[in-house]
């Protein structure tokens, strides 16, 4: 298939699902234009993505396999530079990826997942206690007051970051996922998060704790190899960003879906449907991670008549996978907790499968179940159509989530 002019992606993320449907219909891989005029191959079907995520001819290492980056064609102030300039297991390839994943995997033990459960319960109740003080009928931004602080503080606890440091890095993370930033902002983002992580690591070297940062500082392979300073810095930030931002958007999407499908919410409240099924159906139809930059072709890759040339960039659309009609039929775009097949790849697939899946599911189940138990009359304060998407094609969520925690007090009729 001959490819013409690349399709410019909507950097404002106004309708990522409609965009994915359009690109999927164009073929197994479609040439798109990213910010700065950079080109990549967009893949939007379940079958193609599942194969590519396990294909050894596909890498996430720009420094090894993206000629445009290696040759300096990608400027240091490229709008998405932070996503490819990292030096950690997310961007490693082959033996280096195995080495780094093995080191980081030691920090995500089953013991740590279980040990964090009481803290998740405690923090969930603290946040909901604060919401109890909101006067009846007052609009609350549940993204700001609950969906953000719960996972962000849990991940901060895991890496040993205090609230002051978390607040400083929050702005950097928000700018990093924003695909409308300027080149100047992109440079500031890269320097900002690396400086913040350097301060955190220095503090943990001086005062070790029971946290992942301390574990990674002390991590050693049997042959004595360890994380380099750059790998350590970039790994800690990757854990913070991936562990918090995706779960924030998960809560946002799950709450929205349940409030706009009250009949299905009743099935959950009555125990006919489990919270685990809610989690998977939300991840299927509204993957919190939309499109993750970037992967690269180590060799020419043939995809049913389309050739992705060696060295070209690949953009995997996770939000398109669970909505693929080839996997879930004509109702693939509909939220349905009774759906028997809720297959998705929102935690990844293959060698880059999410290490923190156990912690993420624990936070999701406790957070959702407790929220709806404490506030059974929770309702949206605006129509679903009025919810504004985040200005990005990387993440899938809303700028805010305005709700009524309790039924609004009826206005007193004038006599």
The termini sit apart by: 73 Å
CATH architecture descriptor name: Orthogonal Bundle
Number of domains: 1
The amount of beta strand, in percent, is 5-15%
Q: Could you tell me the mean pLDDT?
A: 91
Task: Report the helical percentage.
Answer: 40-55%
SSE series? EHEEHEHHHHHEHHHHHHHHEEEEHHHEE
Describe this protein's structure.
Helix content is 49%, strand content 9%. It has 415 residues and is α+β, with helices and mostly antiparallel strands. It has one domain (7-403): Cytochrome P450 (Cytochrome p450). The strands form three sheets. Strands 1-2-3-9-6-4 form a six-stranded mixed beta sheet. Helix 1 (16-25) links the parallel strand 1 and strand 2. Helix 13 (229-259) crosses helix 15. The model is unreliable at 411-415 (pLDDT under 50).
Task: Output the keywords.
415 residues; alpha+beta; Cytochrome p450; 6-stranded mixed β-sheet
Topology:
Elements: E1 7-8, H1 16-25, E2 30-33, E3 39-43, H2 46-52, E4 58-59, H3 62-65, H4 67-70, H5 81-85, H6 95-105, H7 110-132, E5 139-141, H8 142-147, H9 149-159, H10 163-177, H11 183-206, H12 212-218, H13 229-259, H14 262-269, H15 275-285, E6 291-297, E7 301-303, E8 306-308, E9 313-317, H16 318-321, H17 325-328, H18 357-374, E10 379-380, E11 402-404
Parallel strand pairs: 1-2, 3-9
Antiparallel strand pairs: 2-3, 4-6, 5-11, 6-9, 7-8, 10-11
Helix pairs in contact: 7-9, 7-18, 9-13, 10-11, 11-13, 13-15, 13-18
Protein name: Cytochrome P450
Organism: Sphaerisporangium aureirubrum
Pfam family, one: p450
